[in-house]
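seq:
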Amino acid sequence: MTTALSDIAEFRLLLEEELGLHVRADDLDRPLDDFPEWDSVLLLRLVTVVEDVVGRRVPVADVLQARTFRQMYEVVAGP
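struct:
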């Protein structure tokens, strides 16, 4: 498992290792609706994994508003 989300490449690695999603760099800006395997269960798993990795709470309401993986990364990477 990754230990940081220092950049979006780490986030992509986390998506693959922890959720089994194969997201290429050019997929980061595609709408989440374009990924038939993406669902609310994976979203909850992602939030849990990210919280463990970054050591802080993730604003779930903001993650729910994300429409792409890049937007999701911007929320979970935080300040």
